[in-house]
Amino acid sequence: MDQGLRKHDMKIAAFTIDGNGTFAQDVPAFAAALAAAEADIILVPGTSRARRSLPAAALRAGAAIDTNVVAVAIDGEKATVQRWAYRQRILTTFSRAARPWVIVTDPALFPEICAKLGVAPAPIPPGPSAETRTTVNGVVAAGTGGESTIKPDSPLLFVAGAGWTKKQADGATHLDEAAATITGFLAKSGASLGSSKSLVDMPEAAKAFSFMSHMNQVGQTGATPRHAKGLSTCCHGEEPHVVGWRFVNDRRAVNLDANCGWAQGKADVLYVADAFAVMKKVNELLA
Amino acid sequence: MAKPLNIIVCGSLVPDPLQTLEPVQTPQGPGLKNEQMLPSVLDPWAACALYEAANLAKQRAGSKVTLVALGPKAKLQQLMMTVAQKAPFQLVAVNAPAGGFTDARETAAELAKAIQAIPGLDLSATLLFGGCASASRDAGVTLQFVAETLGISEFFMGVDELKLADDDSFTVLERIEGGQYLSSTCAGFPAAIGWATGNLPEPPNNPQTGMMNMRGIMPALMKAPVANVGVGGIAYEKTEVPSAKRATVVKKDMAVDDIAKEIVEWIKG
C-alpha cells in the first residue's frame, strides 16, 4: 500500500498512551478524550494499556476501532489501512466510512505512521476520575531468573527450541549445560530470548530454564516480535511457530534435521549441526 | 465458605494452524478457500481460557463453566467432539459465520446477547473469560466490547495467572511491555479476563467427560439461534498472502568452528 498523505479535509489526531492504569478508570477517560478530539481519524500506538481499554472506550464514544494496523494511507475523504489477519498469514487492506475511526497501530510503527501523515502525537488527556475495584500492585518480571530476557529493542532474536532438552549423544539430557549456554549467549550478544511453544510447555524446561516463561513464546499463541535478525536453535521451524517470525527479515537456524521447517523456505540459512557445540563455540568467540 | 463460581468463556473455532490459508472473494465478502472443509480447532487463547476456567471451577464445589461459542453450527458440532473431552462445561451456541474478516463489533453484540439470554444468570457473580485475541481476526477487542455491553467495569488483558481468594477477590498478572507483568488485585466479581497462554498444559482427552458434556451440547447446538454477522462497516480492498518463501541455503558438513565464526560475523555485521 502506498502509505502516506494526499490532499484531504480530514482532521487527524494522535494520542500516546503510556504507563499503567485500570480498565474502570481508563475507559471513561479515553472515551472522553476520543469525543473531545472531534477528529475523523485518531491514531494510537497499541501499548498494553491502550489495547486493554481503548476498544471499550471507542464503543462508548461511538467510534469505530481497528487494531494492529501496520500502514495508513489518506487520500481525500478516504482513509485506508492495512492489518494482518490469521496471525500474520493474510494481509488485509480496507477502509471504513465510519467516523471517528480509532486506528491502533503496531507500537513500533506509530512514530513512522504519524510522521508520514504529518501528525504530532500528544499524551492522551486525563479524564474524569472513576471508581474502580482494582488496585494496581506494580510491575513484576516474568520468569524467576531476575533480569528480563525479553528485549524488544535488541537487533537480534535468539530462539531456543525443545531440542535443548533432548537426550544428547551420550544418551543423557544436559539441561544445566543448555541453560548456561543460552544465558551465556544472551549476556554476550544482548539478544532477546524467544522460544517455541513446545519448550515453554515442558515442565522440565520450566524448572531448568527459570529465565524463560510463556512470555518468551514466539508464534501462533505467542509474540510476533520485530527484530532485524533472528537465530533459531534446536527448533524445527513448524508453521505455528514461524508465523511469529513474520517481521524478522534476516533469519538463520541451527538444527540437526536438514529437512526441518527452516529448510523449507523459512530461513535464509540453515546450518545442519549440533546447536550445543555451535553455540558454545559462538560464546567463546563473543567473549 | 467460598461460593461456587460461575464462569462464562467466550471462544470459537479457527482453522487448524497447520493448514494453508488462501483468501478468496465470496458474495458475503472475503473468505478462505474451501473454508467449510478446513479442519478447525478451538481458538488457542480461548482454549487456554477454557482450561483455566475448568481448573478454577474444580477448586470450588458446585461451580459452573459455560462456553459461549459463535460459529457455523455444523463446524461447531465437529469441534465439540474433541473439545468436550477436555473439561466439563455447558455450551451456548450461536450459529453465525466466524472468521478473520467478520466485524468484531457484530460478533461481540451477538455474544453479549447470548450471554444475557442464559437462564438464571447473575452477572454480578460472574467471571467472563476469553482469549486475549483470536487466531483469526487477531484484533483483541471482542471481549472488551462484550464486557462494555454487559456493564462489566473490571477487565484484564493478556492474563497468565489468576489467584482467587475465598472472598472472591483475585490477583492477576497481565502481560505488558518488555517481557513484564502488571500485577493487580480486584476486589471481586463481576470481571472479565482476556487470557494469554496461562500456565496450564492442555488437558488430556477424557471420554467420560466428553460423553457427559455431549448430552447438553447436542441440544444446545439444535437450538442455536442464527445470527447475522458479517463484515460490518469494513470495505475490503484486498486480502492477500504475501510471498514469504525464502531461498534457503542449507549448509551441511560445515565444521562447528566455521559455523560459529560465520554466525558471529553475521551477528556483528
Question: Which key terms come to mind for this protein?
Answer:
heterodimer; A: 287 residues; alpha/beta; Rossmann fold; 2 domains; eight-stranded mixed sheet; five-stranded parallel sheet; 27% strand; B: alpha/beta; two-stranded antiparallel sheet; 6 helices
Determine Rg of chain B (CA atoms, Å): 21 Å
Helix and strand pattern of chain A: EEHEHEEEEHEEEHEHHEHEEH
CATH architecture of chain B: 3-Layer(aba) Sandwich
- Relative helix content of chain B: 25-40%
Question: How much beta of chain A, percentage-wise?
Answer: 25-35%
CATH topology of chain B: Rossmann fold
Shape of chain B: globular
How would the global form of chain A be characterised?
A: elongated
> What name is given to the CATH topology of the largest domain in chain A?
Rossmann fold
Structure summarized in a few sentences:
With 287 residues, chain A is of the alpha/beta class.
Notes on the protein architecture:
The complex is a heterodimer of chains A (287) and B (269). Chain A is of the alpha/beta class and 287 residues long. Chain A is built from eight helices and 14 strands. Chain A folds into two domains: 4-123, Rossmann fold (3-Layer(aba) Sandwich); 156-286, Rossmann fold. The longest helix of chain A is centred in the first third of the chain and has 15 residues, at 23-37. Chain A starts with a strand and ends with a helix. With 269 residues, chain B is of the alpha/beta class. Chain B has one domain (6-243): 3-Layer(aba) Sandwich (Rossmann fold). Chain B is built from six helices and 14 strands. Chain B has an eight-stranded mixed beta sheet with strand order 7-6-1-8-12-9-10-11, sandwiched between helices. A two-stranded antiparallel sheet of chain B has the order 2-5. In chain B, helix 2 (73-83) packs antiparallel against helix 5 (207-222) and helix 3 (104-116) crosses helix 4. Chain B is globular and about 65 Å long. Chain B starts with 5 loop residues before the first strand and ends with a helix. At the A-B interface, helix 1, helix 2, strand 4, strand 5 and strand 6 of A face helix 1, helix 4, strand 9, strand 10 and strand 11 of B.
